[in-house]
Write a structure and sequence with these properties.
Keywords: Membrane, Transmembrane, Transmembrane helix
Number of helices: 5
Strand order of the largest sheet: 2-3-1-4-5
Order of helices and strands: HHEEHEHHEE
Structural class: alpha+beta
């Protein structure tokens, strides 16, 4: 056995736990709060959609329109603005599941609807706006 083998034998219990990327997302969302809410209201008031969806990602995505760039703002997450209609058009939400999604959708004046993309996959999250 060589020295490298001994160094790599630390048990997983001794390894520092990796912080979930969602912790950094939460911090960024608090910072982005007012901007996201302003865009959500604009989407609804202009009649673009009653269902604004914000795509949170750390890599390049081709979904929605960029509104907050992590590199420009020195944060961890970028945000794109999208809508339920775009998600259906691109097949992310199947037409047959659209009504179910609408029933689950929380009031967009109080919650931001996020489509969070991480290497393991993607999921919808509703995050309350701070007052």
């Amino acid at each position: 056995m060589d020295l490298q083998d001994l160094l790599n034998e630390q048990s997983e219990e001794n390894q520092p736990k990796k912080e979930t990327p969602l912790k950094s997302l939460e911090a960024d969302l608090k910072f982005y709060n007012d901007s996201i809410k302003e865009v959500a209201v604009e989407i609804m008031v202009e009649g673009i959609s009653a269902y604004p969806i914000f795509v949170a990602h750390q890599h390049e995505v081709k979904l929605g329109e960029p509104i907050l760039d992590k590199d420009e703002l020195n944060t961890n997450w970028s945000i794109h603005a999208s809508t339920l209609e775009e998600f259906v058009e691109k097949g992310i939400i199947q037409e047959s599941r659209k009504e179910k999604f609408i029933k689950q959708f929380k009031n967009a004046h109080y919650f931001m609807c996020l489509f969070v993309i991480v290497p393991e996959g993607a999921n919808f999250v509703f995050f309350p706006y701070k007052s």
